[in-house]
Every structure is written in C-alpha cells, then in structure tokens.
Design goal:
- By secondary structure, this protein is an all-alpha fold.
- It contains nine helices and no strands.
C-alpha cells in the first residue's frame, strides 16, 4: 500500500507528539538530575549491587535509557557513557555504549529525515545538490571525520545527516566505527568514576589532536589517491597522444 500524503502527515504528527511528550516528561519530572555525575557517584554502590543481581536486565534497561536519550537529543549521553564504564567495566561497557549510542543516533537521524527531509530538499534542493553529490561520493569518509573530530556536537550531526540522502545503514556502521574511539576513552575513564569531577577533563588536548588526525586521515588519503590517479591518467593520455602523433608522422613520411 502506497502511503498517501494524509497518512504521511498523520505519521509525522504522531512522531512529533511522541517527541514532545518525551521532552516534556524529561523536563517536568526533572529526570536530568539522574544524569549527573554527582548522582551517579552517590549511587554507584547501589547500582553495582543491582547489576550483580540482575545483569541482563540492568544492561537492557541501561541501553534502553541511552537509546531514548540519544534519539531525543537530550543532554546526558556523555554522563551515561562514563556510567557505563563505572557500572559494567571496559569491555561490557564499551559494547553496551557503542550499540546503544549508534542505535539512538540512527533513530535521531531517521526521525529528522522523516519529519524534515522532504521539506528541506524541496525548498533548498538546488542549493543542496552539491552537498548531496558529495555525500553520495564521500559521505562515509565525511561522516567518519565528523564523528572523530569534535567540531560539532554529535546530536547536531545526527539531525543534519537526516537531511541528506545518506543511507541509514551507512550512517549506522560508520557511526559505530567513528564513535568507538571516543566511547572507549569515556568508558575507560568511567572505571574511576569516583575520581572524576568534570567531563571536560576526560579528553586531554593530546587525545583531541589524535582524534582529529585519525578522523582527517581517511578523507585526506582518499583525496591524495584520487589526485594521484588523475595525474597518472593524464600522463598516460599524454603518452598515448604522443605515440599516436609519432605514428601519424611516420605514416605521412612513408607516403
């Protein structure tokens, strides 16, 4: 069954309603206080006991909360990442955070696409043609760089990529890989949760520079490789033209 314009608008209204309800509940019940370092540090022992008694249930609940926070672009993802390290340890924490953050980011991207892409592409389609072309050719490399280089907040990347024509599957696996390094750093820091006073101190300038270099390397290498191939093709073309010209000259002299 092909969705009609009316059904599409109803679907969008339902999605917007759910988002509004989620954000309202987060604000009204002041749920943000549970996503603070102070609360996590004060409750760490209690959470550890709960985790020891109900491992899978706690992991599932944690991932569900993380996915909801990320999908709704609510504040608290960084604190939840640190909490994953403090609660589950490095290996389990990294796996749980990696998949939860990527699933939540993909949902945010999908919602942004469902609600706004048609309108944005219809209104600014001509201006976005270059961007869409670039995303189609180098979108994976571009997104990977954005995930590693801390230029824009992650939730902004999720929403903006939803306005492009990048496939959601591509968005998922590139985000999974691109966010992994940062996830490991935050989860590892979370193992010493009691010693953390601020999230800003987790990423040192050296770590940020390393992420930037790692993020820019793939797209830089791709550009250099493309330039090398273009130069090689031009050289080969000149050699072929020169050979053809010499053959033509020899044929003309022989006549």
């Amino acid at each position: 069954m092909i969705p009609t314009k009316k059904n599409t608008w109803i679907g969008k209204a339902v999605v917007v309603g759910l988002i509004v309800i989620g954000i309202f509940a987060f604000r009204y019940f002041e749920l943000g206080r549970y996503l603070s370092l102070d609360y996590l540090k004060a409750s760490q022992e209690k959470f550890q006991q709960l985790y020891q008694s109900h491992r899978f249930a706690v992991i599932a609940a944690y991932m569900g909360i993380y996915i909801a926070v990320t999908a709704l672009s609510l504040p608290g993802a960084a604190v939840l990442t640190v909490a994953g390290g403090g609660l589950f340890g490095l290996v389990v924490g990294t796996i749980a955070v990696s998949f939860a953050s990527t699933i939540g980011a993909t949902l945010a991207c999908a919602v942004s696409r469902f609600l706004l892409q048609d309108w944005v592409q219809g209104k600014f389609g001509d201006r976005l043609a270059t961007i869409n072309g670039g995303i189609e050719k180098e979108g994976a490399f571009y997104l990977f760089s954005l995930r590693l280089v801390p230029v824009f907040p992650f939730f902004v990347i999720n929403l903006l990529m939803g306005l492009t024509k990048m496939r959601l599957f591509t968005f998922f696996w590139v985000s999974q890989i691109g966010m992994l390094a940062g996830t490991i750093v935050y989860v590892n820091a979370g193992k010493e949760l009691a010693k953390i006073d601020s999230l800003s101190g987790i990423l040192s300038p050296g770590v940020l520079v390393s992420f930037a270099a790692l993020g820019l390397f793939p797209i830089t290498a791709r550009k250099l490789l493309a330039r090398y191939r273009s130069s090689s093709q031009k050289s080969a073309s000149k050699t072929t033209d020169s050979h053809t010209s010499d053959v033509s000259t020899m044929n003309g002299n022989a006549m």
